[in-house]
C-alpha cells in the first residue's frame, strides 16, 4: 500500500505527524511518501500543487492531507492560493464525492451549542457532490456598466447546473453508504424553486429504486438547515449538491461542538481517495503543540476503510480514539473541567497506547 502524505500549512504538519505515528503502530506494509502542498509549496516551488506532488498523489492508493491556508498568501491570484492544492487534487484525481461524518461522542456532548440530549451519540454522514453545481457551472462572470454593458448596471452571474450522470454517481455513493449504516437517505434540494433541483430529485428517486432496502426522503434545503439543529439524530445519510452541501456540512460539523474531531474523505469512481480533517490550518494555534490531532487520525481510519481495504485496522483506530476520549484525555479545544489536558503529541501517543492495549490477547 502506498500513500502520499501532504501535511500542508499551519497545524497540518503537527496533526499529520500524529496520524502517521498511529499508522506506523498498525505494523501494516504501508509506504508513506511526503510532499509539500499549499502555502509551503508555493513558498518553495512557486505553486500550491507542484507537479511532483501531483504525480506522487496519482501514483498513490490514497492521499492523507493535513490542511492548507496561510494569511501570507491570501493576496495571491486565485490559482496560486493555498486552497487550490485541494481543488487541484480533487479535479485531477476525479474525486467528486465528499463524505463528512458528524459524530458526537457522549462524553463531548457538553461542547455542543445544542442541548446535550439532542447531540449525544449523534452519528450522521453528510455527502456532498464536490465537483459540480453553481461553483463550477459555465457561463459565469461579471458584466460591468463601465465596459458598455447593457442595460447599464453592473452584474455578476453564475450558472447552477447538474448533469444526470453527475447526480446518478453521487446517488449511488449515498445509497451504498446508507447500506453500511442505518439505511436511510435524505436528499436535500430546492425543487420548489430550481430546475436543477427538479432534475436532481427525479434522478435520486430513479436511482433509489435499485436500493429498495434503503429509505429515501426528499427535503428542501431550508427545512434541512432547520431540522439539523432541531432533531439532528433523525438523519442518517444526507446527500446534496455542492453549494447546499458546503453550508450544511459546516452546520453539521458545529453540532458536535468540536471541529478538531471531524474527519472527511473525498472519493471518486475507483478506490483512491483524499482524506483530511474537516477543519482548516488553524494559523492561530500553529506551532504551539496544542492542536487536536484526532480528526486527522480518524481521517486515516477512513482511508484504511475506503481506499486500502483494511476495515479491521480502521475499526481498531476508531475504538482506540473512543477509549482515549473515555479515559478523560483532552486537547485544549475539547477540554472541560474534570478532564486531563494534553498536547498534540501526547494525544497521538495515547491513541497508539490504546491501539496496542486493544490488541493484547484476552487472558482466560
Ligand atoms: P480553521 O478550521 O483553521 O480554524 C477555526 C478555529 O478552530 C480556530 O480557532 C482554530 O484554532 C480552531 N481549530 C481548527 N482545527 C483545530 C484543531 N485540530 N485543534 C484545535 N483547534 C482547532 O478555520 P479558519 O480559521 O477559518 O481558517 C484558517 C485557514 O485555513 C484559512 O487560510 C482557510 O482558508 C484555511 N482552511 C483550509 C481548509 C482545508 O485545508 N481543507 C478548510 C477550511 C479552512
From TrEMBL:
It comes from Cupriavidus malaysiensis. Pathway: Amino-acid biosynthesis; L-leucine biosynthesis; L-leucine from 3-methyl-2-oxobutanoate: step 3/4. The lineage of its organism: Bacteria, Pseudomonadati, Pseudomonadota, Betaproteobacteria, Burkholderiales. NAD(+) binds at residues 280-292. The keyword NADP does not apply. It holds the Pfam family Iso_dh. Substrate binds at residues 90, 100, 128, 222. Belongs to the isocitrate and isopropylmalate dehydrogenases family. LeuB type 1 subfamily. Residues 2-351 form the Isopropylmalate dehydrogenase-like domain. Keywords: Amino-acid biosynthesis, Branched-chain amino acid biosynthesis, Cytoplasm, Leucine biosynthesis, Magnesium, Manganese, Metal-binding, NAD, Oxidoreductase. It is found in: Cytoplasm. Homodimer. It comes from the Bacteria. Mg(2+) binds at residues 222, 246, 250. Its main location: cytoplasm. The keyword Glycoprotein does not apply. Catalyzes the oxidation of 3-carboxy-2-hydroxy-4-methylpentanoate (3-isopropylmalate) to 3-carboxy-4-methyl-2-oxopentanoate. The product decarboxylates to 4-methyl-2 oxopentanoate. SUPFAM superfamilies: Isocitrate/Isopropylmalate dehydrogenase-like (SSF53659). Its cofactor is Mg(2+); Mn(2+). The record marks 135, 190 as: Important for catalysis. The gene is leuB. This is 3-isopropylmalate dehydrogenase. InterPro entries: IsoCit/isopropylmalate_DH_CS (IPR019818), IsoPropMal-DH-like_dom (IPR024084), Isopropylmalate_DH (IPR004429). It catalyses: (2R,3S)-3-isopropylmalate + NAD(+) = 4-methyl-2-oxopentanoate + CO2 + NADH. NCBIfam families: leuB. Binds 1 Mg(2+) or Mn(2+) ion per subunit. Its EC number is 1.1.1.85.
Amino acid at each position: 500500500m502506498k500513500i502520499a502524505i501532504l501535511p500542508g500549512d499551519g497545524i497540518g504538519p503537527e496533526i499529520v505527524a500524529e496520524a502517521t505515528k498511529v499508522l506506523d503502530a498498525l505494523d501494516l506494509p504501508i509506504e508513506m511518501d511526503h510532499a509539500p502542498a499549499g502555502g509551503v509549496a508555493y513558498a518553495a516551488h512557486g505553486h500550491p500543487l507542484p507537479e511532483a506532488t501531483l504525480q506522487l498523489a496519482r501514483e498513490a492508493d490514497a492521499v492523507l492531507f493535513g490542511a492548507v491556508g496561510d494569511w501570507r498568501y491570501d493576496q495571491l491570484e486565485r490559482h496560486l492560493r493555498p486552497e487550490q492544492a485541494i481543488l487541484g487534487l480533487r479535479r485531477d484525481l476525479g474525486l467528486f464525492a465528499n463524505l463528512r461524518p458528524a459524530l458526537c461522542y457522549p462524553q463531548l456532548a457538553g461542547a455542543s451549542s445544542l442541548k446535550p440530549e439532542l447531540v449525544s451519540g449523534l452519528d450522521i454522514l453528510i455527502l456532498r457532490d464536490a465537483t459540480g453545481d453553481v461553483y463550477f457551472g459555465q457561463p459565469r462572470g461579471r458584466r460591468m456598466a463601465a465596459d458598455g454593458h447593457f442595460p447599464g448596471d453592473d452584474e455578476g452571474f453564475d450558472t447552477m447546473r447538474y448533469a444526470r450522470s453527475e447526480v446518478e454517481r453521487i446517488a449511488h455513493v449515498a445509497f451504498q453508504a446508507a447500506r453500511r449504516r442505518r439505511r436511510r437517505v435524505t436528499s436535500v434540494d430546492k425543487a420548489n424553486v430550481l430546475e436543477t433541483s427538479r432534475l436532481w430529485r427525479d434522478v435520486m428517486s430513479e436511482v433509489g429504486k435499485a436500493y429498495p432496502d434503503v429509505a429515501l426522503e426528499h427535503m428542501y434545503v431550508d427545512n434541512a438547515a432547520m431540522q439539523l439543529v432541531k432533531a439532528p439524530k433523525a438523519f442518517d445519510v444526507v446527500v446534496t449538491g455542492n453549494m447546499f452541501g458546503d453550508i450544511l456540512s459546516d452546520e453539521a460539523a458545529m453540532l458536535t461542538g468540536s471541529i478538531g474531531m471531524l474527519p472527511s474523505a473525498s472519493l471518486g469512481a475507483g478506490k483512491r481517495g483524499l482524506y483530511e480533517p474537516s477543519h482548516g490550518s488553524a494559523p492561530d494555534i500553529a506551532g504551539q503543540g496544542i492542536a487536536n490531532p484526532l480528526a486527522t487520525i480518524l481521517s486515516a481510519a477512513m482511508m484504511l476503510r475506503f481506499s486500502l481495504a483494511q476495515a479491521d485496522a480502521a475499526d481498531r483506530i476508531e475504538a482506540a480514539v473512543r477509549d482515549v476520549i473515555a479515559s478523560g484525555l483532552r486537547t485544549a479545544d475539547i477540554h472541560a473541567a474534570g478532564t486531563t489536558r494534553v498536547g498534540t503529541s501526547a494525544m497521538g501517543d495515547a491513541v497508539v497506547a490504546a491501539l496496542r492495549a486493544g490488541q493484547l490477547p484476552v487472558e482466560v
